[in-house]
Amino acid sequence: MHFLSHPSAGFAVFALLFGLVPGLSGRDPEPPDIRNLLDLEAYASELAQKPHVIPTPDLDPFFSKLNYDDHRRIQFRKDRSHYANAGPVAVEFFHPGWMFKKPVHFYEIQSGQPTKVPFDPKEFDYFGLKVPDGVSYPDGYTGFKIAAVDRATGNRPEFLAFNGASYFRAVGAGLGWGLSARGIAINTVGGAPEEFPDFTHIWFFKPKEGDTTFRFLALLNGPSITGAYEFEVQYAATTTTAVTASLFLRKPVALLGVAPFSSMFWFGENTQPKPEDFRREVHDSDGLLFEQEGQPVVWRPLDNGKQMRHSVFGIDQLKGFGLQKRDRDFRNFQDLEARYHERTAVWVEPREGFGRGRLHLIELSTGEETWDNIVTFWEPENLPTATQPMRISYNLHWQDTHTHPLARVIATRWGAAPRALDLPNVCTFVVDFAKGALGATKAGEWVPQCGVNVRGGAAKLVGCKVQSNPETNGWRVSLNVEIPPGTDLVELTCDLLDEARPVSERWDYQWRR
What's the first-to-final CA gap in the chain, in angstroms? Predict the structure, then answer.
């Protein structure tokens, strides 16, 4: 879900999905003493060999019936933040209520010993909300958020939040909240019911003075899967979240999505026709970028059409992928409240466990900016079992943009070919590239060659032109593609070449009528 300001609001839609899968009902079992990731992995494997237990909601009716506005009135007190006086972060908790009814159980590990963190209503300001006498307070929080602590200035910018299922999001310094990550994706497409496993228990390692990172463990539990996760986070212009996980399947799944993300794309410069809106573009992310060993770097612009688009890319050895936000020009968004031009991008840097697999991009049709409609994740070729885990580790870089030395695509536009050309059934695709490090070494008048591939029915390339673009100090590629009336889907790729050597990332575009 998309949100404007409050770092928990983006998780609300997923709370509606909790508990809608068959299984046993009861209370979350209390885990044994967990001191490290190996302990948690052993417990996750043990749980995977037992039926899934759906926690029975045990929230007082007063809190469970709160509406959105009343729930937002409940705020954690800054003076009660955990760890603010030691280490790099301050931790605050989210109060159960409204859609958020499932408690998450928190623990603190100090000197190797775990201690439960009990719910404390004194940590919250209820700001005029009249809590009845005798109300039963929750037995846990529903999530938490983290702020960086700058003792020199007193500033405490919030940069990471976990709230709802296994969803979390982070942000780099100076950027705005945007897309969401989650621990795992189960059956996102393919016909089987989608599942939303929960982070049910979280263990904080108590930070010490001088620490630059904050570390915690999380237990993932769902109808088909369990998992042991370790997170290590560090706030900066690029905020890094290092993730290490061991995953166990209770039963086979149709689709397992690793390092999944959700984002929002309503319309951009490539959307035809555009909604009747005063803004030129509305999106959190504008493209999928991915790199693999020995293959072109691929840029896939996002779009929003009349129907769902599901693109799958076979990967032998993934170097990285992420939903990016390349357009940072306020003039293209004109939104003073949402400030879409400041939304964070993310880059997934694999460290272990990413072998052969497939990268998925799902673009759902949407008519508004409220809901996330973009999903991406990596699907491994081999799946774990209840006793044999899949161990994965990766770094999430929440940043302005991922960089590489090749020429980057900075804009994609298309429309009917100019009438003066008298080319019926021809679309013109205009792609702007920045020069990149390799292009910058060439003489000022040099322009690269254009390598184009067109796939889709009887569609064919009828013209390609590359020219310098003095407005961007880069290059512009204009492609004329004949698309007969009976062709509804065309796949296009374009590479800029110096002889046979690529000087750009590959523009990979899907056009639908």
Answer: 27
Cβ distance 495 to 451 under 8 Å? yes
SS3 at position 23: coil
Question: pTM for the whole thing?
Answer: 0.92
User: Average pLDDT of the chain?
Assistant: 91
Copy the structure tokens of residue 218. 């999380």
Which of 177, 151, 211, 203 shows the shortest CA–CA distance to 37? 203
- E strands, 196-255, are 198-205, 214-221, 225-234, 239-249
Calculate the alpha carbon distances from 294 to 4, 77, 273 in Å. 40, 52, 38
Neighbour-count burial of 154, counting CB atoms closer than 10 A to its CB (0-12 exposed, 13-18 middle, 19+ buried): exposed
Cβ proximity of 50 and 251 under 8 Å? no
Structure tokens given for 336: 């003073």
Q: What gap in Å lies between CA 435 and CA 403, rounded to an integer?
A: 13
SS3 state at 476: strand
Structure tokens at 232: 């290590």
Q: Transcribe 435-475 into DSSP letters.
A: -HHHHTTS-TT---EEEEEEESTT-EEEEEEEEEETTTTEE
pLDDT tens digit sequence for 435-466:
988 777 777 788 999 999 999 989 999 999 99
| Token couple for 384 | 């774990």
pLDDT for 418 equals 81
